[in-house]
């Protein structure tokens, strides 16, 4: 029963997206469909995790063709965990989008749902070509979202994003063609172990892996990521940060473990590439000027951490990598949402224009600092458990260079997050909220406390004067709690994962076991 | 062999165009690259190397064309076409900031 519903995770959001595309009113009904669909998917994802506990593999063959001919949807612990996590993140981001008013734009809701449908399909498919199609289903709405919402540079960002992804898709398609030409099938279960035996298959799958690395943002093919994520709207950037590169990473884990079956020959190169990615991302983040571009470069660094898991392979490495993947998705989305809340209310994300938010927005400061500490890897947040597990794996595999880079890049991450914290949350108040309508006061202000705001320019000063006058009676914070709540929830999730790391590690160890020994996956798909 | 040469020529042209500065030229280059991928996909078919799974009764099945790559190509063409049209539309909107060099 649970297995038969697997294709619905792809179909459900797509149908809901189609419905939302043609209905205009009422707004509350559209919101109910949007949140309801994602909530149902989240519930189903949690059910999947429970159903795959202990190594069960669920398979749904489309059209009731026998195993091996049908295009299967497969769920094991790894995909179940990611379906649940991506559904949670999309739900939280959509709530943020609703509070920030972005869903009043007609196309927001349907495209987010279609995007999620593609993500879920890519996570559950057991077929290489279907993976290509699902990734495209995920990307097509993203093209529209990225160039429709956001700042003045959004069209430029959209062009870079589309051109780059079209190129990556072409490479992916070449890879699929080579695989089909060499083996005669693109069913991942039938391809299991093929690259270990034949060099031709290894080259063909190598092309696919390069395409997936392009989509994941691995250095040196990362340039699109920091040029696009800071330019689009806060909600869209948060959704992308939680979903997009992560699907590529999931596919790398899945394809490498199935088709190469843990082949040791190329892992040395992979470790080297991931070390460069970690160091490069963390180093670049230090020099950036806006909150989201710092986060985007830290994300590249994080991608290095996650893929170090598959580069080390082995039970420790894979479990640590999957744990880090889940942690990173939650924390990064939380940080993007905090940055988004600042941007929605203060109208800028430039570090040199913001300041003193720690006193004015205590809740937001908590959400940000919690997630930032987690990203750096401080206990008791989830980042500590993730990095500790990763370090254990590097030492177990005698990859001491990687262990050093893991620690050094963490220090650099500390430096860049510290810079954001210092200039945005500490120091003098440099900017007042741009939205003065919420509790604007008509009375002319006799101010004496807004000297810093005056130094910016006259317009801001006027707003600031009205604000300070109102502040005497209104609460301390300017960002509405509903706008901060999504980021706080995710920071608390990170704290929860950190405190209960043992529980999630058990699950990721099961996921890693499923990747190490692919026989149960293959048997479940190929059954007669 | 002819497919290999054709794909090679298409890739060469596509890569050359993608390295140009104008967005329309890049879009044309991506189209060529997509066509090259489609040619490779078509060339990758062949029923001789795998067992006919469903229609083994038909005697001439060995000589028949492999239907799977054709389905792949059809899907890929639709996707590439849609994305390229959107890219061209983006190139048109706000084309003033397109960094085309006169040389």
Automatic annotation (TrEMBL), chain A:
Q: Which UniProt keywords apply?
A: Cell membrane, Membrane, Transmembrane, Transmembrane helix
Task: Please name the GO terms of the biological process aspect recorded for this protein, alphabetically.
Answer: ATP synthesis coupled electron transport
Name the Pfam families for this protein: Proton_antipo_M
Q: What is the lineage of its organism?
A: Bacteria, Bacillati, Actinomycetota, Actinomycetes, Streptosporangiales
Family, similarity comment? Belongs to the CPA3 antiporters (TC 2.A.63) subunit D family.
- Ranges for domain NADH:quinone oxidoreductase/Mrp antiporter transmembrane come to 126-413
Q: Which GO terms describe its cellular component?
A: plasma membrane
- Which ranges does the record mark as transmembrane? 6-23, 32-53, 73-100, 107-124, 130-149, 161-180, 200-224, 236-253, 265-283, 295-316, 322-342, 363-381, 401-421
Q: What is this protein called?
A: Monovalent cation/H+ antiporter subunit D family protein
UniProtKB/TrEMBL annotation, chain B:
Question: Which keywords, in A-to-Z order, does the entry hold?
Answer: Cell membrane, Membrane, Transmembrane, Transmembrane helix
Q: Is this entry keyworded Cell membrane?
A: yes
Membrane-crossing segments per the record: 27-48, 68-89
The places in or outside the cell where this protein is found are: Cell membrane
Q: Which GO terms describe its cellular component?
A: plasma membrane
InterPro entries named in the record: CPA3_antiporter_subunitC (IPR050601), NUOK/Mnh_C1-like (IPR039428)
Gene3D superfamilies referenced in this protein's UniProt entry, alphabetically:
1.10.287.3510
Membrane topology classification: Multi-pass membrane protein
Q: Sorted alphabetically, which PANTHER family does this protein's record hold?
A: ANTIPORTER SUBUNIT MNHC2-RELATED
Homology family: Belongs to the CPA3 antiporters (TC 2.A.63) subunit C family.
Q: What is this protein called?
A: Cation:proton antiporter
Organism, per UniProt?
Halostreptopolyspora alba
Taxonomic lineage per UniProt?
Bacteria, Bacillati, Actinomycetota, Actinomycetes, Streptosporangiales
